[in-house]
């Protein structure tokens, strides 16, 4: 068995958090086009992407 659904859910959540942290680290040195790409990837990755995009000031990208 692959484990309970809860374990899979937690694994997905941890992986999503790791990816978000990687994007956040790249944000300072990113060009405007890279910021737009990060915003696009965030929208596809998590339902709370709009909050992150607003918080990271990517809405104008």
Polypeptide structure, described:
There is one protein chain. By secondary structure, this protein is an all-alpha fold. It has one domain. It is built from three helices and no strands. Helix 2 runs antiparallel to helix 3. It is elongated, with a radius of gyration of 14 Å. The model has no long low-confidence stretch (mean pLDDT 91).
Largest sheet, if any? Answer: none
- Unreliable stretches: none
Total discrete domains: 1
Strand content: under 5%
- Determine the N-to-C terminus distance: 44 Å
In which range does the helix fraction lie?
over 70%
| Mean pLDDT level | 91
DSSP strand count: 0
Shape: elongated
Give the helices and strands as they follow along the chain: HHH
Total helix count?
Answer: 3
Alpha-carbon Rg, integer: 14 Å
Structural class based on helices, strands and sheet pairing: mainly alpha
InterPro entries: DUF6800
Pfam families: DUF6800
Describe how the helices and strands are arranged:
Layout: H1 5-26, H2 32-45, H3 49-55
Helix pairs in contact: 2-3
Quick recap of the structure?
InterPro entries: DUF6800. By secondary structure, the protein is mostly helical. It has helices spanning about 5-25, 30-45, 50-55.
Characteristic key phrases:
single chain; 61 residues; mainly alpha; 3 helices; 70% helix; elongated
